[in-house]
Amino acid sequence: MHGRRDELAAALARVRGRIAAACAAVGRDPAQVRLLPVTKTFPARDVALLADLGLLDAAEARDSEAVAKMAEVVALRPAVGVRWHMVGRLQRNKSRSVARWAVQVQSVDSARLVEALDRAARAAGEAGQRHGALGVLVQASLDGDPARGGCPLPRLEALADRVAAASQLRLEGVMGLAPLGADPEAAFAQLGAAAQRLRRSHPGAVEFSAGMSGDLEQAITHGSTCVRVGTALLGDRPLTSS
Q1: What pLDDT, in 10s, does the model give residues 182-191?
Q2: Which domains does the chain have, with CATH numbers?
Q3: pLDDT tens digits for range 78-111
Q4: DSSP secondary structure code for residue 82 in this structure
Q5: Measured between alpha carbons, how far is 142 from 140 in angstroms, rounded to an integer?
Q6: What are the b/e assignments for 93-111, b being 16+ CB within 10 Å?
């Protein structure tokens, strides 16, 4: 296990170095950029080892995988409270489960999903399964690809208003994915401008989640406050879920 821990520690140092260099290039403080490990398809023991290295947040893309993995992490590190984030496309019928475990859902892209999560968070609270509001990022679509999710930019602020009005949700900012096969620079510039506009209406919505293993530098240049990193931190993804 020391071999895997050392591997992760070296990868973490490399990623933090990239974040620091990207911030230095545009005069930002690296402390302004949160590193969110995307642990989907990786085993619970990797989450436990990352927690040992000081990374107490983990992001998952599928509810069923997250629920199983959380139980394993609790068994491996009973004294460590890992904070779990949902970053994948979320079907409304999974809202009730996700509201029990997520501290934040980064992939909210429709009014119907807002309503489902609000109801689910209320039910989870009444059942004693969560305490406090559920953090939400509204996901912007930069390529119009329905398979990747996201709300069209012209409708993003109206969606954010719906989240802000929901009693059990807390609007925390914006998330986006760079279009596949395109220069991410222009996409992140567009998304960064949208995030700034949103903050004018909702000053508490300060999180701007953009940038992954291959394009985190460009995202940081345009103001990202959260980079979602899987491959650069954990290695190539297994072909099947662990």
Answers
A1: 889 999 999 9
A2: 2-233 (3.20.20.10)
A3: 999 999 999 999 999 999 999 999 999 999 999 9
A4: P
A5: 6
A6: ebbbbbbbbbebbbbbbbe
